[in-house]
Amino acid sequence: MYFLLFYQPPRTCEDYWSEWKHCKGIRNLFHNYYTYGEAPSCEQWKIDYGNCRKWEKSKSPDAKESLCKSERVRILEKQKYDPVWQLRKSPPRDWYLPLGQDKPK
Amino acid sequence: PASSWEEERRGPVAEGEDFGYRLFPERRSEAKPQRSFLFTSLFTFNHKCQVMLKIALETSRHRGGRPDPVASAGTVHKDRHFACEDCDGCVSGGFDAATSQIVLCQNNIHQQSHMNRVVTHELIHAFDHCRAHVDWFSNVKHLACSEIRAANLSGDCSLINEMTRFKFGLKQHHQTCVRDRAIRSILAVRKVSKETAEKAVDGVFDSCFNDHEPFGRVPHSKSDAKYAYRNFQNRDRYYANL
């Protein structure tokens, strides 16, 4: 119960609303067609907005679960393909070194 | 991690390979001329380049545009990580992994919008260099991946830019442009055949075209960039509440 009281949606409800409006707009329709050859699907943003408001009003666990699930699906979509390279834990050692210290001849 | 440039060059290297450094003559220490301030002011575009670079970086900071989330992967310092130099040919800029510097071609960049695009493009390479073990010099697939991402995310392939190159297309044309520009970029800096470059790009295209870090989306417009930046600022809350 303590955790539920201090939970907040991953984005503010205004963010979900503005993402939905942005997605539906004619500019995004054009950009999506130019990039992917099809119209974007924006319905999920609207559903997420509804769940966000529902959580704000009534702290509904179903709304929270749907919202979290939707965001996790968005993240999984991005991880669909195997990465080409191995990620680092920190920038390369020589990123911050002053010029000339390790410069090749 | 390799401690010198020579050690980083693993794998077979083509004869006569110069990794594109011929395009950036000022990068070779024996070729760097000692020029007076007067010469630099009167006969090069160095000052103009510095001013446009400053504007590009500051504009993005205020509007939360493309460069800022990129810069956070490893802090980018204007004086350390950027250099305005004269370059050969038509090249606009490059990322020198050996010195961790973005090179801007002061003799080929004359408009602010072009500067903004080149800075973004090269910052994508710098971002990849900071966040991953990228083998720039002997793995063509790594180079291909970064070139795909840079062409995809910098605005290089916007409809308007393509039309100014007399390349007309609409449905999914963005992908055609990204593929072509990535291949051209590889051929400009590596002594590989067109087939090798095409094979490398096609082999990694799906993975790299869909890697939109750090933006989370392809930033086609200022509002795309604004939302991407908003997500970046909000990232702690986002991941804490999944």
From TrEMBL, chain A:
<dbReference type="GO" id="GO:1900272">
    <property type="term" value="P:negative regulation of long-term synaptic potentiation"/>
</dbReference>
<dbReference type="GO" id="GO:0045202">
    <property type="term" value="C:synapse"/>
</dbReference>
<dbReference type="GO" id="GO:0043083">
    <property type="term" value="C:synaptic cleft"/>
</dbReference>
<protein>
    <recommendedName>
        <fullName>Synaptic plasticity regulator PANTS</fullName>
    </recommendedName>
</protein>
<dbReference type="InterPro" id="IPR021475">
    <property type="entry name" value="Pants/Emi1-like"/>
</dbReference>
<comment type="similarity">
    <text>Belongs to the UPF0545 family.</text>
</comment>
<dbReference type="Pfam" id="PF11326">
    <property type="entry name" value="PANTS-like"/>
</dbReference>
Automatic annotation (TrEMBL), chain B:
<dbReference type="GO" id="GO:0005739">
    <property type="term" value="C:mitochondrion"/>
</dbReference>
<dbReference type="GO" id="GO:0046872">
    <property type="term" value="F:metal ion binding"/>
</dbReference>
<keyword id="KW-0479">Metal-binding</keyword>
<dbReference type="GO" id="GO:0030054">
    <property type="term" value="C:cell junction"/>
</dbReference>
<keyword id="KW-0482">Metalloprotease</keyword>
<keyword id="KW-0378">Hydrolase</keyword>
<dbReference type="GO" id="GO:0004222">
    <property type="term" value="F:metalloendopeptidase activity"/>
</dbReference>
<dbReference type="GO" id="GO:0034982">
    <property type="term" value="P:mitochondrial protein processing"/>
</dbReference>
<dbReference type="GO" id="GO:0005886">
    <property type="term" value="C:plasma membrane"/>
</dbReference>
<dbReference type="InterPro" id="IPR019165">
    <property type="entry name" value="Peptidase_M76_ATP23"/>
</dbReference>
<dbReference type="GO" id="GO:0005829">
    <property type="term" value="C:cytosol"/>
</dbReference>
<keyword id="KW-0645">Protease</keyword>
<dbReference type="Pfam" id="PF09768">
    <property type="entry name" value="Peptidase_M76"/>
</dbReference>
<dbReference type="GO" id="GO:0033615">
    <property type="term" value="P:mitochondrial proton-transporting ATP synthase complex assembly"/>
</dbReference>
<protein>
    <recommendedName>
        <fullName>Mitochondrial inner membrane protease ATP23</fullName>
        <ecNumber>3.4.24.-</ecNumber>
    </recommendedName>
</protein>
<comment type="similarity">
    <text>Belongs to the peptidase M76 family.</text>
</comment>
